[in-house]
Design a protein that fits this description.
This protein has helices spanning 10-25, 38-41, 62-68, and strands at residues 4-7, 32-35, 45-49, 52-57, 70-73. By secondary structure, the protein is of the alpha+beta class. The relative contact order is 0.31.
Length: 82
């Protein structure tokens, strides 16, 4: 099972969507806002990727993330910041 990755800002999500993910298969993407309890967020691993703060969810935490996360698709996506 793969690790789930998130960014900490919508601008960074737009960057990865437009410059990394979309070019792979040219399929539309939906950027979402995810809220998680602080107790779960404290267990996530933060690191830098392409100069953007990225959050990794270890596979063993995915059931807790799926149970606790509030996910909402964003209707407007800002331009990616490079």
């Amino acid at each position: 099972m793969e690790t789930k990755l998130f960014t900490t800002s919508v601008e960074d999500a737009a960057f990865f969507a437009r410059t990394v993910l979309f070019p792979l298969d040219q399929r539309p993407l939906t950027v979402v806002e995810v809220e998680v309890p602080d107790s779960l967020a404290a267990q996530l691993f933060q690191f830098m990727a392409d100069g953007k703060t990225t959050v990794a969810v270890d596979p063993h935490l995915l059931p807790a993330l799926n149970a606790a996360a509030h996910v909402q698709p964003l209707q407007v996506i800002p331009l990616a910041t490079l």
